[in-house]
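chain and backbone:
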Amino acid sequence: MDRHKHPTAGCLDSQSVKPTECASERGFDAGKLVKGRKRHLLVDTLGLVLAVFVSSADLQDRDGARFLLSRLSGSCKKLRLIWVDGGYRGHLVTWVAQRFRFILQPVVGTEAQKGFVLLPRRWVVERTFAWLGRCRRLSKDYERSAASSEAFVHIAMTRLMLRRLA
């Protein structure tokens, strides 16, 4: 493969999940009508997790993206382009342009499209959410703290990558 070890493009999205009774922090996501937590995920073009941030579900996607992007590590130093959905438009795009080397590019459908339409590049992060949903521990949020939820996302992705190597 002629790929560099650090990714240059990625995809960002969030997923609202229902918690169990033991979750300490939870909120209500009015867009999805879910009371629980929200997983903000940044993946590379292969769908592998680069960063994860778990918050209460009442946190807006744009605010969660700010927390996630401000916590990026050195493995994302070559990142130049991040595809996002329409919920991330607005002040976040200018905030990212002022602080980072990469840009956010919203991928939205046209108004003429009716029903479900597969949008280019956006399906990568959705596929990653589906992979995480296969793990029983991540089908709901069973963890008391958000840090534990983030750790289990990393464990699930490590397990998935190890299975691919075998």
